[in-house]
Structures are given as structure tokens and as C-alpha cells.
Amino acid sequence: MVNIVMESTGELIQYRKVNTVIQLLNRLKLKSSEVLVIRGRELLTPDREIGTEGEIRIRHVVSRG
Amino acid sequence: MKCRRCGELAQVALPSHHTGFCAPCYETYFLRQVERGIHEHKQFSKDDKLVLAVSGGKDSLGLLLALTELGYTVTALHIDLAIPVSSENARSTVEAFCAKHGIDCHVLEMAGKGLPIPEVKKKVNRPICSVCGKVKRHWFNRFAYEEGFDVLATGHNLDDEAARLFANTLRWDQAYLSGQGPVNPAEGRFVKKVKPLCRLTEYETAVWCFLKGIDHVLAACPYSGGASFTGHKKLLADLEERSPGMKMQFYEHFLKSGKPAFEAAVKSQPPLNECSDCGFPSSQEMCGVCRIKRLLEA
Predict the structure, then answer these.
(1) Does residue A40 sit within a domain?
(2) B260-268 LR contacts (CB < 8 Å, sep 24+)
(3) Structure pTM?
(4) Helix axes B158-170, B202-212, angle to 10 degrees
(5) Count of the separate structural domains present in chain A
(6) Which domain, by its residues, includes A20?
(7) CA-nearest residue of chain A to B220?
(8) CA angle, B261 then B264 then B267, to 5°
(9) What was the pLDDT predicted at B141?
(10) Which pLDDT does position A41 carry in this prediction?
């Protein structure tokens, strides 16, 4: 299972399989320029593969005041 | 994706530059963009006495570290707005960051100046973000002027500048369009103001903060819901996704071709007065911040 943690809300979303970062962003309806996609201590570019397990953190970058 | 500079696996994709970088090469890229923004617009030199307005968010703390790494001596200036929880978190984040990096840090408490923002919000019948911005700009400038700083820097980035330009253009606001840009020269009691992140987007600053392990405030201001600039940023982000590099073009072409025309158009504006209370520049007899303070005292 791939666990997706939305840092802004703390929401946890689970997927059985996510092929790539761009597929994940499309499912979450996010643009690659709006968020950091974090796995462990590294950032993932849109072309990176994700697979069937692990934790991905999504951090919004747009200032809201 | 491979890093353009060294060929290692990239961690950052930058469609507007048709490129990607690994972590170490991205840090080099980021610092070069900050330095380029400073030099291209003649913002300041290492001889200038520099103060940076620091909110505790990613842009100001990221810039503070970047300027320090580039060899500039910077003083941090934080304004404690007295908003419960939010202001305490912001202040402790800034103070911890400055202590960790050995940076001189000053805090101005708005409660002590008769301007706690929660009380201002209760009394003023205008959008609080606009009023709060006015209070902060006044006190940042006033501190810089009274303490003898040559330059006041802020963490405004390309997204902030493009959104502001978009808003000003929607209204064809000649006065604001003539004054927008990465440098506002010193004039009277106005200290020179600069925006060293003018070439970098919010995404790029967020990446820098992540890679450098900067602990910054993530929560939004509890009063900022529905701020118009957030909506403008979303519109511009849609355009940028379709045409990478559009934001930079919009801003740079304005600086080159649009701003000079607006500057010429507003040259005949009447000079500013000195505020009858604080003595700082004002378009009216008393400046907006002193009027708000009077309102709270009444």
C-alpha cells in the first residue's frame, strides 16, 4: 500500500499502486509547481516511479498569508 | 530525469528553465539566481547595512539563509502581530532560526505599539490583510530608518510580484504600477526597499528550504482566508502550467517596457506630507497607521 500524507491537513490517502509522481498528482488534482512530493529525505520529480508501497508526503508551497 | 549540471538523478524539475537539478546543483542554482536578482537590479552591495523583514515563513527564512551563505551581513526584523497561537509560533520559529545561525534578530511587538492585530480587526471595517500589511510596511520602514539601515529587504518572490502586477493591471492602477518592482529607491524617510527573490518562484524557495532543512512556519495566518492574491496566484499557476516561463516573462517585460511608461505618467503627482503624529511620509495629514492607532485609543 502507498500512504499519501497531505501535510497541510494531516489527511492520509492510501492507494494500492501508483505508477509515477505525475499519475499521483493527477489523481490528487494538483500541479507539480504547487507541491513538494517528498519520499524520506528526497524530493521526487514528476517522472519518478512510486510503485506499491512506501510513504509519500505532499507539502503545499503556495503562501496563504 | 537527470541533473543538467552533473548527470546525477534529479530531485527538482524546472519546466520554465527546461531543466532539472540534483540537490547540490540546485543549491548552487538557487544562490546564483538570488545573486543575479541582486546585481541585475542594483539592489545592494556587501557594504550596505541590510535589514530583512522576516515573518517565519519559507520565503523570508530561506532568503535569510541564502544571503548569509552569499556572504552578506543581515539583521533580521520580525513583527509580532499578537495574533493568538499564530504569532507565538512565528516568533519562536524566527528566534530559533536566528539563534541557530548566529544572526542578529530584532522583534517589534505590535501590542506594545498600540496596534495588536486582533484589536485592529475588531475596530477597522476593511479587509484585515490590507490593514495588517499597511501596519507591517510602516513599522519595517520606520525601524530601518530610525536604526540607520541603508536597505530593507523582503522575501517577496516572483509569484508575489506577478500576482501583484496582475492585480494592479486589472485596475490599471498607474500609481501602483509605477512603483512596482524589485527596488524602491530611498526617498525622505522611506528607506530603500529590495526583493532579492524576484527571480525565484514559491516552488523554488520551498525546494531550497526543504533541501537546507529550514524549519519554517507551515500554517496559514488564521485571518488570511479569501485573500485576493491567492486567487490571482492560482490563475497565474494555470497559465504557467500551459506556458512554462510565462510568469517571468510577464514580470520582466513589465519592468523593461511597462514600468517606465507608468513612471512617466505619474511624475506630476503631488509630494507626500509628513504625518502630523509620527512624521513619516503620508498622502494625508495623518498617516494610515496613526489613524488606526487613534481609532483603537478612542
Answers:
(1) yes
(2) B262/B174, B262/B177, B262/B178, B263/B178, B265/B174, B265/B178, B266/B174, B266/B175, B266/B178
(3) 0.94
(4) 160
(5) 1
(6) 2-60
(7) A64
(8) 150
(9) 98
(10) 94
CB B253 within 8 A of CB B260: no
**Shortest CA distance from B132: residue in chain A:** A65
- Contact between residue B198 and residue B41 where contact means Cβ atoms under 8 Å apart: yes
Q: Are strands B192-194 and B151-153 parallel, antiparallel or unpaired?
A: parallel
Kindly report the CATH number assigned to the domain that includes residue A17: 3.10.20.30
| Residue A26 is assigned to a structural domain of this protein | yes
Q: Are B281 and B188 in contact (CB under 8 A)?
A: yes
For cell 538570488, the residue is B34
Is the residue at A65 inside a domain? Answer: no
As to burial, measured by CB atoms within 10 angstroms (0-12 exposed, 13-18 middle, 19+ buried), residue B199 is buried
Q: What are the structural domains, with CATH classification, of chain B?
A: 40-218+226-273 (3.40.50.620)
The set of cell numbers assigned to B157 is 518572490
The reply to whether residue A65 touches residue B221, judged by beta carbons under 8 angstroms, is: yes
The whole-angstrom separation of Cα B52 and Cα B71 is 14
A48-51: long-range contacts at Cβ-Cβ below 8 A with a sequence spacing of 24 or more? Answer: A48/A20, A48/A21, A48/B1, A49/A19, A49/A20, A50/A2, A50/A18, A50/A19, A50/A20, A50/A21, A50/A23, A50/A24, A51/A2, A51/A17, A51/A18
Q: Give B28's contacts (C-beta < 8 A, 6+ positions apart).
A: B5
Is B108's pLDDT higher than 70?
yes
C-alpha cell of residue B91 = 516568533
**pLDDT tens digits, one per residue of B7-21:** 999 999 999 999 999
Nearest one of B147, B154, B181, B171 to B257, comparing CA atoms: B181
Comparing alpha-carbon positions, the chain B residue that sits nearest to A48 is B1
Query: Among residues A9, A2, A50, A6, which one has the least CA distance to residue A28?
Result: A6
CB nearest to B207's CB, from A43, A48, A64: A43
pLDDT at res. A8:
87
A57 contacts A7 by C-beta, under 8 angstroms: yes
Asked if the Cβ–Cβ distance from A46 to B13 is below 8 Å, we say: yes
**Could you read off the pLDDT of B158-216 as tens digits, one per residue?**
999 999 999 999 999 999 999 999 999 999 999 999 999 999 999 999 999 999 999 99
